[in-house]
Automatic annotation (TrEMBL):
InterPro entries: DEAD/DEAH_box_helicase_dom (IPR011545), Helicase_ATP-bd (IPR014001), Helicase_C-like (IPR001650), P-loop_NTPase (IPR027417), RNA-helicase_DEAD-box_CS (IPR000629), RNA_helicase_DEAD_Q_motif (IPR014014). Residues 276-454 form the Helicase C-terminal domain. One of its GO terms (biological process) is mRNA transport. It is an enzyme of class 3 (hydrolase). Belongs to the DEAD box helicase family. DDX19/DBP5 subfamily. The keyword Isomerase does not apply. Keywords: ATP-binding, Helicase, Hydrolase, mRNA transport, Nuclear pore complex, Nucleotide-binding, Nucleus, Protein transport, RNA-binding, Translocation, Transport. Residues 96-265 form the Helicase ATP-binding domain. This is RNA helicase.
Amino acid sequence: MADQANQANTPGVAPDSTPAAATATETAPDVHQDSNLVDNEYEVEVKLSDLQNDQESPLYSVSSFEQLGLPKPINDGLLAMNFKKPSKIQERALPLMLSNPPRNMIAQSQSGTGKTAAFVLTALSRVDLSKPTQPQALILAPSRELARQIQMVVQTIGQFCENLIVEAAIPGNISRTAGVKSSVVVGTPGTVMDLVRRRQFDVSQLKLLIIDEADNMLDQQGMGEQCVRVKSMLPPTIQILLFSATFPEKVMQYAERYAPNANQMKLKQQELTVKGISQMYMDCPDEREKYDILCKLYGLMTIGSSVIFVKTRESATEIQRRMEADGHKVSALHGAYEGANRDAVLDDFRSGRSKVLITTNVLARGIDVSSVSMVINYDIPMKGAGDREPDAETYLHRIGRTGRFGRVGVSISFVYDRKSFESLAKIADYYGIDLIQLSPDDWDATEKKVQDVIKSSRAKADYAPNVTSG
């Protein structure tokens, strides 16, 4: 289930250097005993839009879900899931997102801090359930896997909402004869665009557009053009909420145009890495020996479950073939698989029937499998023509598949030459991470370092990235 937890404090309000904004920062404690989820320590900065910069709209937060005035069925759904107190981002974001008249929001917060639950609560609160087949809230995600996961979260939190219908607008899932017949729609931008064009998706009464993983979705190298086209098809008065763990500066500038006059929430760059994850690297002798070292790690991978990230589909398929031939049970998932096969592979991984999953960046974002204790970057994520520069944002999203909600987790990145070593070093410097070196020549020491983390109750403080306040 999506992200959550923590303790409320009375917020401070301080004027920004410009009169058109107000900001506030707070540090959250590491764990709250009354919730089944946790917040890492971090500071939340809230910047109010020009529209809210007046004395009648002060910045405020809530200490309980009850204070939000949510309908009883939604509160009952939260209680059933043991969500007892709002997380830090929920304390700050929900009062602003639920205010009337509706305001746009750009929210950035690290994995496992409550983003999904925050926007799902907003969607459920905006929907008129007396019109169960009339689309009123649209949530866009970059992959079918994440769309299905969000659909499940909406259904779970909304389990007591009578007449709630939630559909996934992903390839092969919406009947061409019936079209979209639900109040909440979760989909990928290409499929949504096609459905609207074919007049199988009535968008005339949509009140809310939510974009998850918005940095990737709005990036012009990614799905930016599709998201622009989708927005152009929707009512101009629609409320827009943009969520992501990362927002590079150029994407943030674009997001501010996509969601004009938006309230904003963000973390400092050095506070973005996930504190519960021990981030390690394996210095492999050469590229050929990477595979042998990967197989040596197999026993550690299956203590919980593990995700191996590789650069290409072909590499994922080939590593799966070789590992299975060597007697290891693994599965692979990437964009070349048909939709139903992708669903089945991910369902097997979620259930524990499969414990080691090899994948490309298709699963780097948003996917939550609670048992994942290890992420392996078999290939360091790169970007740009010819893979010229390290992709720090993708690294952060990849390792965020483990250490969810304060559980321990390990990430191991493989390096084998000057380029891979320097690329990982740049990522570590970007986030202020102290990487732990693992040696392939001393396997007993390597196994002990990894096992100590996986079997501990929480990640050790000295394995955490450096965090600066402000």
